[in-house]
Amino acid sequence: MSRDGRFQLYYRKGWAYLAVEAPQGNGRPVYSEEVENRMKVLRVPRVSGRTIREIVEAADGEPVALVEWPDGRSLASAVTVSVADDGMTAWVSVAAPRKGAAPPTVEDVLDELHAAGVLFGVDRAAVVSLLATSAYGIKTVIARGAEPVAGRGAAIQYHFNTNRGKPYLEMEFGRINLKELNFIDFREEDDLLAELLPPVTPVDGRTVDGATLKAPVDDRRVELAAGANTRLSPDRTQLFAATDGNVRIRANRVIVEPVVVVKNVNYETGNIHFDGSVVVEESIADGFIVEARGDIQVGKGVGRSILKAGGSVLLKTGINANGSGEIECGGDLFARYIESCSVTCHGNVIVEEAVMHSTLRVWGHCVLTGRRAEFIAGDIVLGGSFWCKKLGNLNEVATRVAIGVEPNLVLTYRTTRSNLDEKQDELDTTEQKIEQIARAIRDGHDDEKLIAALRQLQAAAENLRAEIGVLRSRLPGLRDQLAASRAGMLVAEDTIFHGVVITFGRMEFRVSDQGARKTILRAGEFEVIESGFDHRNRPTLDF
Asked: In angstroms, rounded to a whole number, what is the distance separating the alpha carbons of residues 379 and 385?
């Protein structure tokens, strides 16, 4: 096998290098004139002909440094290093070498990384792969810092869902399938509910430039405590169910509460008053009461009934209370619809379709999420935000929304105003009667009965004036407390109809005759601020 001799003339690290390989068999050798001509083309500084001839004659394939060649840098492969703002990632991009320059080596790239200050977390294998595949011009992750490992004391790991019943945490107000939602997490006796994880030793992190990231340390101490119907292992590191029931957290303790499951609540069961949770598989008949210290879950319809829960209430269909039903809960309320009902909820209200002709007092948010998502002819006072598609209707039926103030404050203010108006009306009527009797006495009708009636009315008027004075003195202080939270907002994805009255504390927003479309309202410093709603840039609620 014959092969001609060959040579390489290339730039590397400020020098021109020459490597000559001897021919094989009958192959043609390399001549010094060829090398000299190539040097002229590349503008390599001249060297003695003797030096070139010696290298050509040796032809051992070993590169020999010929001469310093500063101008050859323009031919070399450029290595560009970039580092993330947080110092945790470094990238490299290697440009293809031009003719006359040697291909970059792993050491070349590592030298450039070092010169750029990338000293930690360099992936040498990534450098080798980049050069082996000639991935020129591609920005490649070449170094990663080490995140600090936060130190902590022992921590509790729960073996049940502590956030069940909160689909809005993941769904961004998409349609909620209440039929698939369950508050009851049933566990059997001896099931493991929670365990104490060992402490974690803090480990400092490092950025790619070698800087130390101090690991945070949470030195809070935690311990497992046995709640109702649970038991601890002898070493107090594991918590087990001591009975069958619904597991949940109450007052920072894991408890297992008994669960009552009935098909219906009617004359066969009577009213239910229970210390744990109640599951009604079907419906609750009119006139019946269900009270539970835990959660209440109803599979089908609820009518003119009273539901009171220390936890949350889930109505997989809804309630039509015909004006005489009530719901009160310490947690969240979920329902497909709420109609003609009085609601007091210390958590959030999540409704799939509509709220109609109802009175709601909500300490958290009220979110209507479904296809209709309408709030019609109701009165709602809530401490958080309100979200719907349509608010009010074309008939301009009275609809009132008060946002961003704790319901108790708003209701106390309203009651005081109402009592003041009633007392003032009563005083006006009493003073009219006093004037009539006084006129009759002046006209000569001064019998004892009229005089006694006059004195009685005058005493009543004095009492009313005193009561009015007390009520008037209370109003300024109550009004001062009606400062709406700046975090509260009203979002109407579709329409707010004329006739709707919206208040943020002391500020009132009345909808124009034309209504409002795709609107977001927020409390400003002196007035309600109105802006447009954009599906592509939806605001978020902090649950």
From this structure: 14
Q: What pLDDT sits at residue 203?
A: 93
Q: Is 542 part of any domain?
A: no
Final residue of a structural domain among 456, 480, 504: 480
Q: Cα separation of 225 and 525, whole Å?
A: 46
The 8 Å CB, 24+ separation contacts for 50-58 are 52/18, 55/18, 55/20, 56/7, 56/20, 56/29, 56/30, 56/31, 56/32, 58/20
Q: Is 477 helix (H, G, I), strand (E, B) or coil?
A: helix
What are 484-529's pLDDT values in tens digits? Answer: 788 889 999 999 999 899 999 888 998 888 889 999 999 888 889 9
Distance, C-alpha 394 to centroid of its chain: 35
Range(s) of the domain holding residue 245: 157-202+217-255
If asked whether residues 339 and 434 sit together in one domain, one would say no
Q: Report, as an integer, the average pLDDT of 294-301.
A: 91
Give the pLDDT of residue 107.
Answer: 86
pTM of structure: 0.60
Tally of domains in the chain:
5
Phi, psi of 234 (to 5 degrees): -55, -35
Q: Within 13 Å of residue 55, how many CA atoms lie on the same side as its CB?
A: 24
* Tens of pLDDT, residues 404-434: 888 988 888 888 989 999 999 999 999 998 8
DSSP state of 377: S
Which of 63-67, 76-80, 309-313 has maximum average pLDDT?
309-313
Strand ranges for 182-237 from DSSP E: 186-187, 192-197, 205-206, 212-213, 217-218, 230-232
Residue 32 lies in a domain: yes
- Is residue 18 helix, strand or coil? strand
d(CA 453, CA 320): 50
